[in-house]
Amino acid sequence: MAEERLATRTQFPASAELQKPRPKKAPDFPILEKQNWLIHLHYIRKDYEACKAVIKEQLQETQGLCEYAIYVQALIFRLEGNIQESLELFQTCAILSPQCADNLKQVARSLFLLGKHKAATEVYNEAAKLNQKDWEICHNLGVCYIYLKQFNKAQDQLHNALHLNRHDLTYIMLGKIHLLEGDLDKAVEIYKKAVEFSPENTELLTTLGLLYLQLGIYQKAFEHLGNALTYDPTNYKAILAAGSMMQTHGDFDVALTKYRVVACAVPESPPLWNNIGMCFFGKKKYVAAISCLKRANYLAPFDWKILYNLGLVHLTMQQYASAFHFLSAAINFQPKMGELYMLLAVALTNLEDTENAKRAYAEAVRLDKCNPLVNLNYAVLLYNQGEKKGALAQYQEMEKKVSLLKDNSSLEFDSEMVEMAQKLGAALQVGEALVWTKPVKDPKSKHRTISTSKPASFQQPLGSNQALGQAMSSAAAYRKLPSGVGGTSQLTKPPSLPLEPEPAVEASPTEISEQIRDK
Q1: pLDDT of amino acid 23
Q2: How distant, in Å, are the alpha carbons of 101, 168, 206, 314 from that of 510?
Q3: What is d(CA 212, CA 515) in angstroms, rounded to the nearest whole number?
Q4: Which long-range contacts (CB under 8 A, 24 or more apart) does 242-248 make?
Q5: Which helix (H) or strand (E) is 190 found in, with range?
């Protein structure tokens, strides 16, 4: 008996040494999460029908409490265009997990897509309190503030986003703010920094090239557009811009070759057909020009620049009723542009509607404070109507504008305009009617008309934000068409549209939040 007790005592410590803790059984997944892997698998494979079937089963088992299933269901609804339904589901996710910034970001994005920008900013600010180092929140806040026209707040948020993490899209939006404010120099600086950060981004290179083109820095414009085409030879925006540069300098055949390449990529681009039409206009093929411009007008019926060019071409062909039609339509879309009223007055003068022509000239003078051609044409009309006092006032106003332009720039005025102004000045001083219908030296220019209200033009580019070879205006564009331009101009630029008319803001919050979160 004693031996058994001793054996038991000696064996006890030995068994204690050999005993090891049993490995614990792997914990079961909670019922709320057990199908998440399958939902994720179907979603990334874009098998949305199977994904929705699994989500439905999962929500039935969990009585609608599985946050991940609801989240993915909301993403699918958004992809299908059901923004309101996705908003409601994301709000449910935010209730189930109120401390998750991703849920609030998705709620804000849905509000943004519904056009509720102010509400979106409020939700983004709540998300920023949960995660202050998320560049995406700062970026999207900046985009929302752009739509709310609060540009200072937008710039602050976008700069914060760049401080946290640099992205091409943030640079693009920051540059667009400066473009909306009309500050081209700051926009150029932003895009230069963006190109330094991402030198192979063709969109940045093309945009910077277009800005240089608008500023008249053609060497740098050509350089950046060439770099864009190096990285992407099929970039139709860069090709269109390069073609417009050639068109601006009168190389219409080379420009048409470029446009032929673009037409294969974007055959329904309104700016493309506008530029093609104005190339034909520069080559004096007016029927082809009208055909192309009509196609551009069909594709973009509310683009006033195309209507402007159509009016200019019809004036050239002495089709004054058609010119009146298109110029009137352009004025409806761009009522603050004085040159449109001037061209309308020219058409009305040729239609023998003198009273309305005077009203159009008066409006042009009120709106345009820089172009002396408006005052010169108005003075000619008044002189021909026997109103020498009014003609003298307009002539003196024209002289003031010419003096101001000479002081501020080195532009050379068109010789025919100068000659006409000298004749008008002599007539007003002497009081004798001079022969205004001087024979045209070029016998080939049979389309020139003999009208005292059509002196040669002092052309200026349109005040557009994204000019390439912008539409040029001239009261006498239909009277004199030297080789390569629509009306004599010290700038020698043919009428054409910007590359792509940009909307006020073309952006949305980044798509990063669209990805499945790790649960």
Answers
A1: 62
A2: 15, 11, 21, 46
A3: 37
A4: 243/275, 244/213, 244/275, 244/468, 244/469, 244/496, 244/499, 245/213, 245/218, 245/221, 245/468, 245/469, 247/275, 247/278, 247/279, 247/282, 247/469, 247/494, 247/496, 248/468, 248/469, 248/493, 248/494, 248/496
A5: helix 184-197
Mean residue pLDDT of the chain comes to 77
State whether residue 410 is helix, strand or coil.
coil
Backbone φ and ψ for 299, nearest 5 degrees, come out as: -75, -30
- In angstroms, the Cα distances linking 67 to 39, 58, 89, 514 are 12, 10, 9, 16
Residues pairing with 472 in the sheet: 461
Find the helix or strand (DSSP H, E) in which 62 lies: helix 48-62
Torsion angle in degrees (nearest 10) through CA of 327, 329, 332, 333: -100
Q: Render pLDDT for 207-221 as a digit per residue (tens, 0 to 9).
A: 999 999 888 888 899
Q: List 461's β-bridge partners, or say none.
A: 472
pLDDT at 444: 34
pLDDT of the residue at 182: 87
- Integer Rg of the chain from CA: 34
Please tell me the distance from the alpha carbon of residue 90 to that of residue 82, in angstroms, as a whole number: 12
Tokens for 84, please give them: 């309101």
Q: pTM for the whole thing?
A: 0.64
Of 483, 482, 458, the closest CA to residue 472 belongs to 458
Of 381, 372, 374, nearest in space to 348 by CA:
381
**Which tokens is 246 given?**
């050639």
The terminus-to-terminus CA distance of the chain in angstroms comes to: 63
* Structure tokens belonging to residue 347: 């058409």
Q: Are 468 and 272 in contact (CB under 8 A)?
A: no
Arithmetic mean of pLDDT, 302-326:
93
